[in-house]
């Protein structure tokens, strides 16, 4: 075959077909909700076992989807004083706190230039539905700095359509660096105690250096603060997944 | 605001008037401040009446949202919001654009006129 140049083109073999064996089971992503992991302390593990049984019972009746801090959720709650008795709120999850049945998550949104945050309890019977509109992670575990960031980073459309999560394998990490309002902020987010990676600090070098004065580099090596949860997580994951499959 | 995090509303807190009344929206060199809270404790939460000092006048107002976190499932706003009100409970403005918590519907008797002019609920 002669190509457009006039010279003989090198023979390119056709690409090999990729065979995806759909019958073979794909490795499912393991996600254990953080409220199952018991906090470090001297309480009787029986208490956590009983709480876990109640949590699993609730999850069998009502589906609590997997979500992380930074994903956009829509929650419908039963409200006596709302029209049609149901109240829908869309927002980005900025923090997940509490362990066991008292686990909470805070959703934030800006409606009509007014920032609103609502703290919901995951296992409350008042919640009627939780939908994940956008499943993604952010660079930090706690997005409280969004209160001091420009409001465009906390606005989400109330009638947003759910973004389909493509792979069953990875959760996308949004490496967005947020721009802040001018100081003063509610907390000094530039300090190393908060360890925030998701802010684009436009502060002078002098301020950033001064903030490093409060760094405590010995904290990560402190052995008394160590809490290795890998083995506990394995046990709880087995227990929870078996119960939920029944 | 200049000072740091403020919580529920008490004497001398600066508030933000949320309705479209003339008193609330004309600029003045001093922000509207609370001078009295009609409550047994001096702390005002959502649904309490307060006395406001605006443009050199005293006016009553109703709290519709504050920065302090309340019970779970209730919204927490980023600013202390207030709606100007007469002594008999009639609102002065004609429209409230900012979202109002549904909890106010519980006291429909006292706040029916304020809830009637509100457009967004949370």
Automatic annotation (TrEMBL), chain A:
Q: Where in the cell is it found?
A: Mitochondrion
What GO terms in the biological process aspect are recorded for it? translation
The UniProt keyword set, sorted, is: Mitochondrion, Ribonucleoprotein, Ribosomal protein, Transit peptide
Family membership, please give it. Belongs to the bacterial ribosomal protein bL19 family.
Gene name of this polypeptide? Mrpl19
* Protein name from the UniProt record: Large ribosomal subunit protein bL19m
Q: Name one GO cellular component term.
A: mitochondrial large ribosomal subunit
Principal location class: mitochondrion
Superkingdom of the organism of origin:
Eukaryota
- Gene Ontology MF annotations: structural constituent of ribosome
> Which Pfam families would you find in this protein's record?
Ribosomal_L19 (PF01245)
Q: What is the lineage of its organism?
A: Eukaryota, Metazoa, Chordata, Craniata, Vertebrata
UniProtKB/TrEMBL annotation, chain B:
Q: Gene Ontology cellular component?
A: mitochondrial inner membrane; ribonucleoprotein complex; ribosome
The cross-references to InterPro entries, in alphabetical order and at most eight, read:
Ribosomal_uL14, Ribosomal_uL14_sf
Q: Which UniProt keywords apply?
A: Mitochondrion, Ribonucleoprotein, Ribosomal protein, Transit peptide
Taxonomy, superkingdom: Eukaryota
- Please identify the protein, giving its name as recorded: Large ribosomal subunit protein uL14m
A Pfam family matched in the record? Ribosomal_L14
Q: Where in the cell is it found?
A: Mitochondrion
Q: Which GO BP terms apply?
A: translation
GO molecular function per UniProt: structural constituent of ribosome
Q: Which parts pass through the membrane?
A: none
Q: What family does the database annotate?
A: Belongs to the universal ribosomal protein uL14 family.
């Amino acid at each position: 075959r002669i190509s457009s140049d006039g010279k003989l083109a090198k023979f390119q073999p056709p690409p090999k077909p990729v065979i995806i064996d759909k019958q073979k089971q794909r490795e499912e992503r393991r996600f254990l909700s953080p409220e199952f992991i018991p906090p470090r302390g001297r309480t009787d593990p029986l208490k956590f076992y009983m709480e876990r049984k109640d949590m699993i019972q609730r999850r069998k009746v009502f589906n609590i989807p997997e979500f992380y801090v930074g994903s956009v959720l829509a929650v419908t709650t039963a409200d006596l004083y709302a029209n049609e008795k149901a109240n829908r709120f869309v927002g980005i999850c900025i923090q997940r706190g509490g362990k066991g049945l008292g686990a909470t998550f805070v959703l934030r949104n800006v409606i009509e230039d007014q920032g609103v945050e609502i703290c919901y309890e995951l296992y409350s019977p008042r919640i009627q539905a939780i939908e994940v509109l956008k499943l993604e992670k952010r660079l930090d575990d706690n997005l409280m700095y969004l209160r001091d960031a420009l409001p465009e980073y906390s606005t989400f459309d109330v009638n947003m359509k759910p973004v389909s999560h493509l792979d069953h394998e990875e959760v996308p990490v949004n490496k967005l660096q947020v721009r802040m309002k001018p100081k003063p902020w509610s907390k000094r987010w530039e300090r190393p105690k908060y360890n925030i990676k998701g802010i684009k600090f436009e502060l002078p070098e002098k301020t950033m250096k001064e903030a490093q004065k409060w760094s405590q580099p010995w904290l990560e090596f402190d052995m008394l603060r160590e809490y290795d949860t890998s083995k506990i997580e394995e046990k709880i994951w087995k227990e929870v997944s078996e119960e939920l499959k029944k | 605001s200049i000072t740091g995090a403020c919580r529920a509303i008490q004497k001398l807190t600066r508030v933000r008037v949320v309705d479209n009344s003339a008193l609330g929206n004309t600029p003045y060199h001093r922000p509207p401040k609370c001078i009295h809270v009609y409550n047994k404790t001096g702390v005002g939460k959502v649904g309490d009446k307060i006395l406001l000092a605006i443009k050199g006048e005293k006016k009553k107002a109703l709290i519709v949202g504050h920065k302090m976190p309340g019970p779970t499932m209730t919204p927490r706003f980023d600013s202390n919001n207030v709606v100007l009100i007469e002594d008999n409970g009639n609102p002065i403005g004609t429209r409230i654009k900012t979202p109002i918590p549904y909890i106010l519907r519980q006291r429909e008797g006292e706040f029916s006129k304020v809830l009637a002019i509100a457009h967004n609920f949370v």
